[in-house]
Amino acid sequence: RRDMAEAEAAGSAGAGPAAGQGPGEEGAELAAVIGATVPTGFELTAAAEVQEKLGSASSVSRDRGKIYFEVPARSLPQVHRLRSVDNLFVVVQEFKDYQFKENKEDALKDLEDLVKKLPWTDPLKVWELNNSLKKKKTKRKKHNVQRTASKEKLNDDGEEEGTAQKDTNKQEDCAQNATGGEPASGQDTEETKAAASRNGEEEEEEDDNEQSDAKDDVQAGSGDGRRGQGEAKVLKFRVTCNRAGDKHSFTSNEAARDFGGAVQEHFQWKADMTNFDVEVLLNIHNNEVVVGIALTEESLHRRNITHFGPTTLRSTLAYGMLRLCDPQPTDIIVDPMCGTGAIPIEGATEWPSCYHIAGDNNPQAVKRAANNICSLLKKNENKESSTSPGVPLDIIQWDICNLPLRTGSVDVIVTDMPFGKRIGSKKKNWDLYPACLMEMGRICTPGTGRAVLLTQDKKCFAKALSRMGHIWRKGQTVWVNVGGLHAAVYLLKRTWERAEEKRPFW
């Protein structure tokens, strides 16, 4: 609800993408209109995150799963750290009501002619700046890895055996560290706090570096798009067309081919479908046309997961679900069917002041989730180049219908329930869903507890929920697209009624 209110307020501020935005009010300040693809159904959640973290109002596209917002170009590093966005692009121009000709040849000719009229200069400067930031980040990453390696050498007095031993120990202790367990030999948490504050300072320093790098590059950017890093380099490009609507006389491929031909002629770039420097986006949704330049090479939703399972949830969708339940500091958040751990890992990363518990009945899933937590810990160590204090997350193998947790001890439950397609079956869900809701109701705090549950088996869930009305009240429903399946995210509120008694389900 908070997200809805914030996003509505943001929408009323009316900061949609303007045609060919140039420098901001401060004169030479380069402004960028950013388009972001987000999980369908979570557009308002993403808009609220942008408002909260960047102070920018967003407009939600009529084409579901996209939002637009304006930021100074120097804020690009923060834009890439948004948790709710999959892909980012800088808007060259948007046409809210583009009139397509009925004849195919005429419609395609209009798209070709459009290329020469578009305000490419500033968006290309933003693209160049984005590229230089990516390179600096890669260099910094390499530098940190080298520094960590040299530290290890010093600590082990150059003994290769010691390093190997340390790595083995690290691997064995990884799951234990991931839980953020008790400090060794009865030490208090002062050391951990000191390490955390040191890491915080280093992170702030890194942010400042990125900010100043961005500022320098904004001033240095040439933006003519005809040169790359060296004078002689000819940029390679491709055009990707995403089209929706049944009133167009042409296909996506035809639009991409003809628009791409005009781009090639205009910039003298070289077309390359696989090994390209620049990806030009042509998004057509009925009469809404947006031309953009991609800022991300691969979707940001893969950020946490290195060990995948058959139904691994996108990190961006996990973030949307967690944000829906409005986690508060010290909340205990449980994912009782965690799979590869996408939800608890996202939770521990973004809400470290909460305590996260993950579990699954499948030992393979628990193993994958533990490996993903290990990867996160290693990434944190490399990033902070010092001992990481761990993450506030425990993982355990358990039975969803008989959880080893005290009655009323959990504040929030967030989970992706089995759809009955790749895992389980629709038939089994008729017994599983009511049993799950009953056990979740038992561990959840009466009156204040809440649950956010994702499922595509809506009929079975609705039936189970109607039988559990004494424990759970339905708050909000968000319709989402999960791998082409029409699914729903339900926000449930825990009633004050005790849940010990076992009622017949059907």
Automatic annotation (TrEMBL):
InterPro entries reported for this sequence: RlmKL-like_Mtase, RlmKL-like_Mtase_CS, SAM-dependent_MTases_sf, THUMP_dom
The keyword RNA-binding is assigned to this record: yes
Biased composition (Basic residues): 135-145
Location in the cell: Cytoplasm
Domain THUMP positions: 189-295
GO CC annotation: cytoplasm; tRNA methyltransferase complex
Compositionally biased intervals (Gly residues): 13-25
Pfam name, any one: THUMP
Keywords, comma-separated and alphabetical: Cytoplasm, Methyltransferase, RNA-binding, Transferase, tRNA processing
UniProt xrefs under PROSITE patterns: THUMP, UPF0020
Biased composition (Basic and acidic residues): 163-173, 212-231
GO biological process, one term: tRNA methylation
Molecular function, one GO term: tRNA (guanine) methyltransferase activity
Region (Disordered): 1-27, 135-231
Start-end of Acidic residues biased regions: 201-211
Cytoplasm in keyword set: yes
Family stated for the protein in its record: Belongs to the methyltransferase superfamily.
Protein name: THUM3 protein
Organism of origin: Nyctiprogne leucopyga
